[in-house]
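Record 1 of the preview.
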Amino acid sequence: MKRDDRRQAIMDLLVAQRVVDLDDLSDRFAVSKMTIHRDLDDLEQAGMLRKVRGGATIEAGGHFESDFRFRQQQEGEAKRRMAEAALELVEPGMTVMVNDGSMASVLGELLPQRRPLTVITNNAAVIDRLKTESGINLIAVGGRYSMKFNGFFGVVAEQALSRLSADIAFISTPAVSGLRVYHMDDDVVRSKRAMIASAARRCLLLNHKRFNHTALHVLATIDEFEVIITDQEPTIDVRAALEGSNVQLRVASQERK
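->
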């Protein structure tokens, strides 16, 4: 197998399993462990995975979030339930901000159900989905394009967002611990902060697996949001931490289907 084909196969395994083992990869592809190490090093440098002891993962870490293309293929059913719960907060005539991220992109697919709407977003997937929809006044935030996050960031995006106003902003995040919300990328943090500052209400979208995790940058505190939407009932300790805040927790459970 050629090197590029092997590396693509490694990424395909990671999408399916989220974690791969070094020894297993060496056996599977009939190459040395050093060859696999080099593959993983190059893929990590490209921002595609995170090396861990004995292998690699695409699970988020304090300094790492996997590429949008891979996150888009994960947790599809849970994302759909959360998007449907988020849609309940949207009424025709609203101005809605939608941030970057694969979770937010699923919400973008549903927004035409609430038309007419004004939608402000830096999420390239949402822009692509809504650009031809009648009844959607789409404001696409420009800036520097990031393939990893499939969105637009930087000074141009932040300044544009600061000059706009929305009824509600939907903000997704890879990590919450206690009463703090985290993200590993400073450009992404600044664009999300600009949305938080420009919206009358804020809704945090969070997979239940991301509770009790931190990342490099503090994005916000929980009390900056009115609502948290997650896909499963959080643990008792998470519930206890949230009880002191004024945020409403909504669980998009399987019964919603």
